[in-house]
Amino acid sequence: MKIKKRFFGVLFAVPILCIWAGVSCIRTEIPLPEVVNAGANEQKPDDTMITPIFTKTDQLWSTTEVKIAEGVSHLSFGDRDRGWALARNSIYSTVDGGATWSLVNMNLAILRQEDRVEYFEFNSDGFGRIILQHSDSDEFSPRDEVRVFQSADSGKTWNQVASKRSAMYSAFAVHGSTSWLVGTVSGPIHPSRRMPFILRWSSFEKKAEDVSRQFSTFLNPKKDENFNYPSISKIAVASSGCVVMASEENSVFQTCDSGESWKRIRSEGDPAYPDLINDLAVIGDEVRILQASGGAEGTGSMLSVVGLYSEKTEKSVSMSSYFLTRAKWVSDAEIIVAGEKKGNPLRDSPEQEKQDMDVILRTLDGGKTWSEVFSRKHDEIRGTFVFADNKTLWLIDEAGRVFKISAPKGN
Questions:
Q1: Residue (of 7, 5, 11) closest to 346 by Cα position
Q2: End-to-end C-alpha distance for the chain, whole angstroms
Q3: Which terminal residue of the chain has fewer beta carbons within 10 Å of its beta carbon, N or C?
Q4: CA 374 to CA 376: how far, in whole Å?
């Protein structure tokens, strides 16, 4: 889902941020602390926010341009060796970590005019999913449609398993054989109003189940026609099967019974400190959040925060001057994040924007110290990072060029 609001401009560390308070949990629920924004004169506990040390490493990760095909738009890796690439209407695959690529599907017949590929993913067994958004404008329209296709043969053939009309895609998550898709749909009574929808299905089923009603009832039990529904933007699934969803309004919701019942485990923060949850994951049964937090709307200030949560420790790491969009939580100690670093905070001209850098940061101690393992000028790269594993990332730039970014041997 496209983030309609992105804050750019002056980036600096905001001294007043949120205090994460612990939440009691039971065996089937995921611990996630509540956010409380501290006032200017309030005392913040020393152990709630980690102020990390940033260093440059002598062992920078290597960058190699990889030739696949013209116009690569999406990449997916099931593991370090097996990967798939979507280039215009064709699918390519590799079994040797990107050294060689072979054509799998020359003309992807499921693509229609004005379709946009929102999600492209394969696992190491060659089971793939494509989510397509049909839209003829940036505004909602009755012609909008979300369609989901699955492939069991590495992308050679595709079967449709779900579709939703008058809808816009937001996020997708899968755990085992169960898939979840969330988005926004026009209201049945007032088409101009937007409501969340949730689809769930098994990889072995030919049709998805719509479980939106239970969530809508939880949010609006009195069925108030003027109720403003949250815009769900992220979803993740725990190993236990519990599902967490985050909204653009910075709320987090949870279900542990396949969507039959829901609870709000985090409410909207102080509107003076808007947050954008850029990445959401669940490691074991513990929630991880990568979010961007800034000052009051209109100031243009922005920083990123990595949320580290467990039953014993709830901490956040302040990543000042970085706008981070992707994260890979390898363990509680090792985290890899990717995004941008603002070279000139004022950015008064296009020339100053060229000082922005695409960066990859890595920590091996839970966020206390970070090494900048990759750095390139943003106007040279300006692309999307894809994780293959904790030692290999792939980057697609706006021109469709592909780069493999690898950690040094033994690192």
A1: 11
A2: 34
A3: C
A4: 7
List Cα–Cα distances, 53 to 89, 158, 369, 389, in angstroms.
Answer: 45, 48, 5, 25
Angle CA 233–371–307, to nearest 5:
35
For residue 136, the Cα-to-chain-centroid distance in whole angstroms is: 24
Q: Where are the beta strands (DSSP E) in 176-230?
A: 178-186, 194-202, 209-210
Question: Which long-range CB contacts under 8 A does 359-364 form with residues at least 24 apart?
Answer: 359/322, 360/61, 360/336, 360/385, 360/393, 360/405, 361/54, 361/319, 361/322, 361/324, 361/336, 361/337, 362/334, 362/335, 362/336, 362/337, 363/52, 363/317, 363/333, 363/334, 363/335, 364/333, 364/334
Q: Model pTM greater than 0.85?
A: no
Q: What does the angle CA 301 – CA 306 – CA 308 come to, to the nearest 5 degrees?
A: 150
Give the neighbor-by-neighbor strand order of the sheet with 53-56: 53-56, 369-377, 357-363, 335-341, 322-329
CA dihedral 341, 344, 347, 352 (to 10 degrees): -100
- Token pair for residue 332? 């509680």
Amino acid at the residue 374: F
**Any idea which residue has 């110290």 for tokens?**
369
pLDDT of residue 92 exceeding 60, the answer is yes
- Report the alpha-carbon distance of residue 286 to residue 284 in Å, rounded: 6
Alpha helices in 212-342 (DSSP H): 212-219
Cα separation, 382 vs 342, whole angstroms: 13
Residue 59 DSSP one-character state? S
Contact 305/281 with Cβ under 8 angstroms? no
Quote the CA–CA distance of 11 and 301 in Å, as a whole number: 5
Q: What is the pLDDT of residues 212-235, one digit of tens each?
A: 999 999 999 998 888 889 999 999
Structure confidence at residue 36 as a pLDDT band (50, 70, 90): very low
How is residue 50 written in tokens? 């980690």
List the one residue out of 80, 101, 105 whose CA is nearest residue 90.
Answer: 105
Residue 347: pLDDT over 80: no
Burial class (CB in 10 A: 0-12, 13-18, 19+), 283: middle
